[in-house]
């Protein structure tokens, strides 16, 4: 049963972010500097049903989890493994609903048939794909899609940041945007908001949210981030992001920090163009990196890449999504992140300027990405990755690294034990509850709204 915790436990916790994690050194210093991040202030004792407020949520790396992941991985074919890397959009209000879009894009008519054909690691839901109509309908859709993937349950994701990016509005509780939460200066409210969102998503059968936004909005002319960010102060944003990660984990939902290495200082929208950000390595370490380091310290499940060029970090001219120096060199090696790296949507113009859709998928994997989000041509991208593995361009070891990370995420959220099944009556009870609405009101009041 989905349960929402009261204010006496997690909602009373106090969170204080430390400085940028060891990999980036002190603010203003070189990204190569290494100092220890200060410990967080102890929080009040939490309820026994959740991890302590100052500790990351479990990452699924216990011996039992590792054994389960190894067992599943050993039974997978090459096609199974490559399928796990993809998260497409499937069209229709139910898993068995026929759609011309599915037929033209995937060669089959229904979401269930597309899942059985490509065996993707996950699916993302959108209103414009006909996925979001009512609470009962979404529950039926997510349950039906999970039934179509009996061997390895799906990551079912949503882009539910709240505010301007709220894909499940008006069904879910209307919560303020991150900028409004940032105005309160209180990380406890960021945690509460994330737990509300996560609880409602989980009730719908959605187990991964592409939130929180970890970008620091230092450019007031930024056309794509703006109110989606908690603010323009890296340390304040860090505290809010870490709290939000913990709030999603309180609800039992996976979280994603985005958009790495930082999308806050641009005046170009990567949906329609390719932004170039001229930050030096030391500027990146001071301005962009701290919230991502804080998210990693808090146990974030995934980090999403940005379709931006940072020539001072990688002179190739490729967007960060396709950059080994950024995804592997900075995110993996410098910040020490070993969770899932997701691309931003691969149908965006910012990543399609230079390469075809199949080559983009291959280069993203080679750069360090594990999850290929919304490929515009799934058959082409899927075939291109398989070809790259067979030729040795992508090694079997590299493929297994990504599949292992995805399976580990699923195991950490209980998805390998059994396919989750949402309950429409429980979802109707949880979503928009009086307690959830009070959280929204409290944030607005504290922000001066």
UniProtKB/TrEMBL annotation:
One of its GO terms (biological process) is carbohydrate metabolic process. It is an enzyme of class 3 (hydrolase). Keywords: Glycosidase, Hydrolase, Signal. Residues 27-67 are annotated as: Disordered. Residues 78-409 form the Glycoside hydrolase family 3 N-terminal domain. Its EC number is 3.2.1.52. It comes from the Bacteria. Residues 1-23 form the signal peptide. Pfam families: Glyco_hydro_3. Residues 33-67 have a biased composition (Low complexity). It catalyses: Hydrolysis of terminal non-reducing N-acetyl-D-hexosamine residues in N-acetyl-beta-D-hexosaminides. Belongs to the glycosyl hydrolase 3 family. This is beta-N-acetylhexosaminidase. The lineage of its organism: Bacteria, Bacillati, Actinomycetota, Actinomycetes, Streptosporangiales.
């Amino acid at each position: 049963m989905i349960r929402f915790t009261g204010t006496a436990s997690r909602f009373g916790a106090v969170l204080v972010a430390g400085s940028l994690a060891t990999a980036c050194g002190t603010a203003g210093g070189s990204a190569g500097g290494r100092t220890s991040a200060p410990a967080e202030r102890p929080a009040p004792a939490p309820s026994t049903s959740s991890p302590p407020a100052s500790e990351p949520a479990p990452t699924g790396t216990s011996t039992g989890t590792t054994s389960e992941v190894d067992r599943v991985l050993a039974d997978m074919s090459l096609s199974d493994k490559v399928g796990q890397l993809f998260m497409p959009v499937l069209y229709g209000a139910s898993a068995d609903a026929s759609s011309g879009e599915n037929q033209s894009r995937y060669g089959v008519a229904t979401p269930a048939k597309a899942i059985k054909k490509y065996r993707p690691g996950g699916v993302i839901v959108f209103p414009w794909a006909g996925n979001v109509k009512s609470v009962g309908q979404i529950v039926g859709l997510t349950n039906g899609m999970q039934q179509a993937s009996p061997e390895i349950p799906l990551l079912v994701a949503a882009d539910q940041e709240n505010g301007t990016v709220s894909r499940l509005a008006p069904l879910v509780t209307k919560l303020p945007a991150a900028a409004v939460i940032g105005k309160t200066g209180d990380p406890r409210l960021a945690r509460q908001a994330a737990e509300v969102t996560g609880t409602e998503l989980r009730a719908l059968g959605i187990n991964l949210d592409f939130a929180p936004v970890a970008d620091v909005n230092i450019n007031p002319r930024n056309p794509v981030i703006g109110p989606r960010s908690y603010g323009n102060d890296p340390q304040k944003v860090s505290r809010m992001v870490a709290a939000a990660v913990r709030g999603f984990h309180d609800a039992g939902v996976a979280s994603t920090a985005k958009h790495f290495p930082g999308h806050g200082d641009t005046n170009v929208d990567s949906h329609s163009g390719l932004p170039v950000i001229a930050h030096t390595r030391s500027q990146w370490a001071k301005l962009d990196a701290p919230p991502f380091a804080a998210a990693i310290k808090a146990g974030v499940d995934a980090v999403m890449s940005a379709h931006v060029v940072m020539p001072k970090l990688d002179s190739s001219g490729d967007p960060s999504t396709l950059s080994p120096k950024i995804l592997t060199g900075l995110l993996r090696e410098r910040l020490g992140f070993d969770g899932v790296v997701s691309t931003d949507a691969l149908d965006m113009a910012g990543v399609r300027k230079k390469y075809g859709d199949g080559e983009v998928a291959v280069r993203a994997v080679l750069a360090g990405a594990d999850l290929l989000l919304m490929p515009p041509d799934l058959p082409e991208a899927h075939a291109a990755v398989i070809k790259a593995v067979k030729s040795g361009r992508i090694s079997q070891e590299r493929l297994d690294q990504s599949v292992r990370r995805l399976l580990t995420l699923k195991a950490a959220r209980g998805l390998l034990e059994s396919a989750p099944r949402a309950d429409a009556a429980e979802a109707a009870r949880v979503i928009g509850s009086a307690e959830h609405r009070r959280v929204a009101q409290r944030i607005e009041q504290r922000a001066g709204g």
